[in-house]
Design a protein that fits this description.
199 residues
């Protein structure tokens, strides 16, 4: 057993919907409904071990994010929102356009939002799903690529789009980042910015 993959080691084989349900323990009608969709399940089963995701399969990453959600001291409504975001956020990585230059309209987060719109009208959930990687991209532009102005503009657009949903975004970003062997610097950067914004 491996703590970094939600209690399942990297050899854990997930090949069908019933095994996904066993791993992800759906709690609501919406979660169960999502796990009945073949294309969605195919996306959760996809993945090989790689940097940032040594667990490989998307479903194992989702399990780890959900375990992080379980550790938060939050109300039940926020927990339900975060679980849906966790379940859907990376499920379309297997079909996103990875060509260069990037077609951002085919990014996995945009595809995930479009899919989820058939299941919920919760704007907070939809926005966090769509924007879940944006803080990382802003950090990367500033700190790795040294495109400071571009990164700052990208981060400001994120803040503008999130509006009142920033706290939910941060909770998910934290739960998502504290998984696998992901670089923790983007999370520390975001925490520092949010602390500054409170002053």
């Amino acid at each position: 057993m491996d703590q970094t993959t939600g209690g399942f080691d990297n050899r854990y084989q997930i090949t069908n919907e019933s095994e996904l349900a066993e791993l992800l323990t759906p709690e609501t009608e919406m979660e169960w409904s999502l796990l009945q969709h073949p294309d969605f399940c195919r996306g959760l089963i996809w993945g090989e071990p790689r940097f940032g995701h040594p667990e490989g399969k998307v479903a194992l990453h989702v399990r780890e994010v959900m375990d992080n959600i379980d550790r938060l001291e939050i109300d039940s409504a926020t927990r339900r929102q975060l679980r849906i975001i966790a379940l859907v956020h990376d499920a379309f990585k297997c079909v996103e356009d990875k060509n260069y230059p990037r077609d951002w309209s085919r990014h996995h987060s945009v595809l995930a939002r479009k899919f989820l719109e058939a299941y919920t009208k919760d704007e907070a959930v939809l926005k966090v799903v769509e924007l879940h990687d944006e803080a990382y991209y802003a950090w990367r532009a500033i700190h790795l690529y040294k495109n400071i102005e571009e990164g700052q503009q990208r981060f400001q657009r994120l803040l503008d789009r999130l509006g009142k949903h920033l706290p939910l975004y941060f909770l998910f970003f934290k739960c998502d980042t504290e998984t696998g062997d992901k670089n923790q610097a983007p999370l520390r950067w975001l925490e520092e910015i949010l602390e500054e914004m409170k002053r």
